[in-house]
Design the sequence.
């Protein structure tokens, strides 16, 4: 017998004005419960394997280095890492020092513009974030918390500086990206004609996550003249705009979950400049997935392909950071056409599902494939916990070593800052099976009674000097310089940069 007939093509379930709730109105949302066995204190011990501490600077407390792709200023033997307050001089790795410049912002590119023969710094500015706190556990879903963020948003956009003389940065331009939007979370600029921004230009950009009121899309800027920056184009995921509600609800299973990251956090990363014939960009778009962008027409960005893991869980920021593997085809043919996709957790104490990093094969840009999963880091045997879920604070990868760095990169080495799990080094010689080969977990900072002092974990960013075999780790409790036998003996004397990990950038820096 045929099924029941519903006139005019209607269906009783589809026509219902609202879904019928299950056990609770609105369903469940993260955060989940605190794991049983979680520490009642913060572990002040450190743990290390196959690494050594070269030096430690407790008074240099950084959040990040630059924009996590390009942050090193160099001239002669002098080297400085850009950070949110200015520069850290690392010429002598045993005697690092700070050159301060307040108010520069957090995320910023610092690269040499060959055409202008100047070091240029692009600094991102955004409205305050809304992470969950004891007072506001659901973040921006508390209206007064969201209102507080919107009432004092500050400047939103990018500022460009000439930092050829790092002691005297010169403001070139302040470009506001939108008076009502989130602003710019992070830029990607390699010294060429274009900059790529993770940018929220108005208040119509949808964000499920509790961490911010509005979300970001992709904005591409013309940087031919850094003192007169111009917008070139915009792109967003279909359904990301509030007016695209019907498409959003019909397409994405996380629609309405109030925890998924529905935007890009890292802007489009372009391995070969468009003006040099490149047409591919890689974008991490949170729960929307990893996107391969077609930039053949820079004024109309398109999508060639995308991928997301079939077991992608709710919460956190999938593809928080994406980094192309820069490998010589003669010496590392098996590491060609790879991108590392790195997630970041948002809830402390694993009160959301664990996410891992991916190796993504982009040989066919229309069909990127996840081919390798990074293993879950485990604690040292002497640690007072058996899993980092119990160590307090956020447990996940955050960022990889910078794409642009001095020396010839080792493409098989991936260094990940891992928040409460410290610094983890992996070998991807077999990209289908990454292996952990070294780690360093610094002592925890903060006080257990003050949640906001330890919720992020400790280890934030990592930078490798390939030509000196040195690893720099930023933490809330100070700056570390480390070495690892797998990189080779550390070089502790000042050294001029002879080449860069991406040979086509910073040309003429030492002129």
Sequence:
């Amino acid at each position: 017998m045929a099924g029941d007939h519903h006139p005019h093509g209607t269906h009783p379930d589809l026509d219902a004005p609202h879904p019928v709730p299950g056990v609770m109105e609105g369903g469940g949302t993260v955060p989940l419960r605190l794991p049983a066995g979680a520490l009642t204190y913060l572990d002040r011990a450190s743990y290390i394997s196959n690494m050594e501490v070269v030096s430690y600077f407790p008074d240099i407390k950084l959040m990040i280095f630059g924009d996590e792709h390009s942050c090193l200023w160099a001239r002669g033997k002098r080297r400085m890492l850009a950070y949110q307050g200015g520069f850290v001089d690392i010429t002598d790795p045993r005697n690092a020092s700070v050159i301060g410049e307040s108010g520069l912002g957090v995320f910023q590119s610092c690269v040499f513009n060959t055409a202008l023969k100047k070091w240029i710094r692009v600094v991102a500015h955004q409205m305050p974030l809304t992470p969950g706190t004891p007072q506001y556990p659901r973040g921006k879903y508390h209206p007064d918390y969201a209102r507080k963020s919107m009432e004092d948003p500050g400047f939103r956009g990018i500022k460009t500086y000439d930092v050829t003389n790092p002691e005297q940065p010169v403001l070139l331009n302040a470009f506001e990206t939108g008076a009502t939007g989130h602003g710019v979370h992070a830029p990607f600029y390699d010294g060429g004609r274009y900059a790529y921004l993770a940018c929220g230009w108005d208040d119509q950009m949808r964000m499920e996550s509790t961490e911010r009121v509005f979300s970001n899309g992709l904005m591409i800027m013309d940087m031919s003249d850094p003192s007169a920056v111009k917008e070139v184009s915009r792109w967003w995921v279909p359904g990301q705009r509030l007016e695209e509600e019907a498409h959003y609800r019909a397409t994405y299973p996380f629609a309405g979950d109030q925890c998924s990251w529905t935007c890009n956090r890292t802007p489009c990363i372009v391995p070969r400049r468009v003006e040099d014939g490149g047409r591919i960009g890689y974008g991490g778009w949170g729960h929307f997935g990893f996107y391969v962008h077609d930039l053949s027409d820079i004024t109309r960005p398109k999508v060639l392909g995308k991928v997301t893991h079939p077991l992608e869980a709710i919460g956190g920021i999938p593809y928080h950071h994406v980094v192309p593997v820069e490998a010589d085809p003669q010496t590392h043919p098996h590491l060609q056409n790879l991108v590392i996709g790195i997630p970041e957790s948002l809830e402390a104490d694993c009160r959301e599902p664990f996410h891992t990093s991916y190796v993504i094969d982009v040989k066919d840009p229309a069909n990127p494939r996840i081919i390798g999963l990074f293993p879950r880091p485990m604690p040292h045997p002497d640690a007072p916990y058996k899993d980092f879920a119990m160590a307090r604070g956020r447990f996940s990868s955050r960022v990889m070593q910078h794409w642009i760095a001095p020396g010839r990169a080792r493409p098989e080495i991936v260094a990940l800052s891992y928040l409460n799990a410290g610094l983890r080094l992996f070998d991807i010689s077999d990209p289908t099976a990454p292996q952990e080969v070294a780690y360093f977990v610094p002592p925890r900072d903060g006080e257990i009674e003050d949640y906001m002092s330890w919720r992020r974990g400790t280890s934030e960013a990592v930078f490798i000097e390939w030509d000196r075999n040195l690893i720099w780790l930023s933490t809330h409790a100070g700056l570390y310089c480390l070495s690892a036998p797998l990189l080779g003996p550390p070089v502790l004397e000042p050294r001029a940069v002879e080449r860069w990990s991406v040979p086509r950038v910073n040309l003429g820096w030492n002129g």
Observations:
- Confidence is low (pLDDT under 50) at residues 1-16.
- Helices lie at 12-15, 143-151, 245-251.
- The longest helix spans residues 143-151.
